Every structure is written in C-alpha cells, then in structure tokens.
Amino acid sequence: MAVPFILDTDSAQDDCVAILFGLLDPAADLRAITMVAGNVGFDRQVHNAAMTLAVADKVGACPIHLGCSRPLMRAWEGAEDVHGDGSGGLSMDVPDGMVSNEGAVDALLRMTSEEPGELSIVAIGPLTNIAAACIADRTFPQRVKSLYIMGGSNNGVATSPPPPSSTSTSTPRPRRSSSMRDSPTSSS
Q1: pTM to 2 decimal places
Q2: Domain annotation covers residue 67
Q3: What is the dihedral of CA 164, 165, 168, 169, to 10 degrees?
Q4: Residue 23 domain-assigned?
Q5: Is there a contact between 6 and 34 (Cβ–Cβ < 8 Å)?
Q6: Count of domains in the chain?
Q7: Which domain holds residue 21?
Q8: What would the mean pLDDT of 8-24 be, rounded to a whole number?
Q9: CATH code of residue 16
Q10: CB neighbours of 63 closer than 8 A, spacing ≥ 6?
Q11: Does residue 141 fall inside a structural domain?
C-alpha cells in the first residue's frame, strides 16, 4: 500500500528529485506539495516544482500550495550562491493553473482534518509552514501521522548562528522523534 504524504519543500535541485520520487515511486502517494521560502527566490521555487510536475508528465496529479514566502522572525536570505536557480539551469514553460488558490497552511490544516492520523509530512525545507500550522491550530500536530525532517550538515558547519541561549538545547523532546502526536506543542 502506498504511503500518503504531503511534501513541504523549498524545491531546489534535491527537492525536485524528492518530488519525482513522490510522483513516480509506487510506494509513495504524494497528496500535495506545499511551498516554503528557502534556498532560492520563492517564485523560482514554485516554478521549479511546476517544472518537475511537467517533466514527469504529472501536471494536475498533485496540487502546489503556496506557503510562507519568508521566515517568521527574520528577513529571507537566499542561498543562490550554492544552489543557483535551484533547477540546474533548466528552463521551460509550464501550463497556467498549476498553483492552487488554497494556501499551504490552510491545505495542511484541511487535509489533516479530513484524514486525521493518516497523512505524514515530509519537510525538506525550512519548517515555517509547519510552525504556522501549529500556531493556527494547536491540534494540528495530533492529526499528523508522522513528521519527517531533512536537516543537518555534511561538514558540521551551521548555516545559521548558534542559538543565543540554552533554551533550544533544554526544550523537552517528544518520545518518538518521527511523530508529532507526542510533541509538547500538541497540548491545548
């Protein structure tokens, strides 16, 4: 049985490959792509996701929902010096109408309300949409089957400064890191 999930992404090259896996792997049931500000300009990210759907001949198979176009607490800083345009220079026209009128946070809340405990979220960009969904509806974490996060560094160098205090290192952690249901933020 295919695993139903939502891909929360900033769609640079590696994320476009993840979209392809979600669309083409029989074990995956990609229900939605939610866009979040990340490595390259937001409009370019959306175009990259749309191009990926078009290249895979899956236009209309999976909605693209626009999410947070900047971080919650600071200005957006791109990483085009590392990621270029996020598509490896690929350029092509994409059909109009590939982007849903429903925003990413609203889609996350609606979809997990319609199928509580059934949908996983694979977050491979900044967690801004996830945070906004938790702020908008404190019961959101309880409705998510699992949350998978791509994070870390291949060389031990952080892409942002260390936290200003030990708050982040002393925050209680959930029992199972892959599940949001046990998250401390899930209490009302």
Answers
A1: 0.79
A2: yes
A3: 130
A4: yes
A5: yes
A6: 1
A7: 3-71+88-106+121-153+173-186
A8: 88
A9: 3.90.245.10
A10: 32, 33, 100, 102, 107
A11: yes
The dihedral built from the CA positions of residue 4, 132, 39 and 103, taken in this order, carries a sign that is positive
Q: Which amino acid, residue 32?
A: A
Gyration radius (Cα) of the chain, Å: 16
Q: Does a structural domain hold residue 162? A: no
The answer to whether residue 178 scores a pLDDT higher than 70 is no
Place of tokens 């899930």: 186
Per the prediction, the chain carries an average pLDDT of 81
Burial level of 54, CB count in 10 A (0-12/13-18/19+)?
middle
Model pLDDT for residues 106-151, shown as the tens digit of each residue: 999 999 999 999 999 999 988 999 999 999 999 999 999 999 998 7
Give the closest residue to 121 by CA, choosing from 56, 183, 45: 183
Token readout for 151 is: 């994070």
Whole-number Å distance between alpha carbons of 25 and 48: 20
* Exposure on the CB side of residue 141, measured as CA atoms within 13 A: 20
| Region for 156 from its dihedrals, namely left if φ exceeds 0, alpha if ψ lies in -120 to 50, beta otherwise | left
Which single residue is written with the structure tokens 């429903």?
102
Distance CA 17, CA 150 (A): 14
What amino acid occupies position 39?
N
Compute the distance between CA of residue 120 and CA of residue 146 in angstroms, rounded to an integer: 5
